Amino acid sequence: MKTLYQYCLVRFLPFADSGEFVNIGLVLCAPAAGTFAFQLVPEQSMRVPQFFPQLHEALFPVTIRALSEELHQIQQLAEQQTAPELFAAFQNLIQEREQLVRYSALRSVLSTAKIDELLAQLAQQLVY
User: Fold this and answer.
1) What are the phi and psi torsion angles at 81 (to 5°)?
2) Residue 55: is its pLDDT beyond 90?
3) Which of 25, 26, 27, 29 is nearest to 5 (CA)?
4) pLDDT (0 to 100) of residue 47
5) Which of 8, 99, 109, 122 is least surrounded, with the fewest CB atoms within 10 Å of its CB?
6) Are 28 and 6 in contact (CB under 8 A)?
7) Which residues, 6 or more positions from 81, have their beta carbon under 8 angstroms from its beta carbon?
8) What is the DSSP code string of 24-73?
9) Any idea where the domains of the chain sit in the sequence?
10) CA 85 from chain center: how many Å?
11) Cβ neighbours of residue 56 under 8 Å, at least 6 residues apart?
12) CA neighbours within 13 Å on the CB side: how many for 66?
């Protein structure tokens, strides 16, 4: 049986004036199945310093820890929400804001894969 998943790339944008960003993860939601999952690069990843060598070394690890905590909370709440509530929470999360972490446009995929399998596949394809 196919499930409709909706996802966004997680982007780290430390210098808003240049508009340059690096993909640091992925958030994935299947409201009808009541699931939310995410995958982020490790805080020690060399991916970000390679893109932004001038970045203060402590900024990214602190940002990724805070983001991970926020996404874990959403993941825990997802189990207790109805499909419309979960989708509303997902839309609120990915809403455009002026901050270090931003989200790509909402994308959809119809798949027979389990959420963890699809998350790993998309992250490998789009983030790493």
Assistant:
1) -105, 155
2) no
3) 29
4) 84
5) 99
6) yes
7) 34, 89
8) EEEEEEEGGGTEEEEEE--TT-SHHHHH-TTS-TTHHHHHHHHHHHHHHH
9) 3-126
10) 18
11) none
12) 10
Q: What is the H or E stretch that residue 5 is in?
A: strand 3-15
Taking alpha carbons only, the member of 61, 46, 53, 3 closest to residue 28 is: 3
- Stated as kind and residue range, the H or E segment containing 15 is strand 3-15
pLDDT bracket for residue 17 (50, 70, 90)? confident
pLDDT for position 49: 86
pLDDT at residue 6 is higher than 90? yes
**Cβ atoms 94, 103 nearer than 8 A:** yes
Q: Across residues 78-103, what is the average pLDDT?
A: 92
Please compute the mean of the pLDDT values over residues 96-104 and round it to a whole number: 92
* Other CB atoms within 10 A of residue 94 CB: 20
CA angle 40–50–120, rounded 5-degree value: 25
Average pLDDT over the chain reads 92
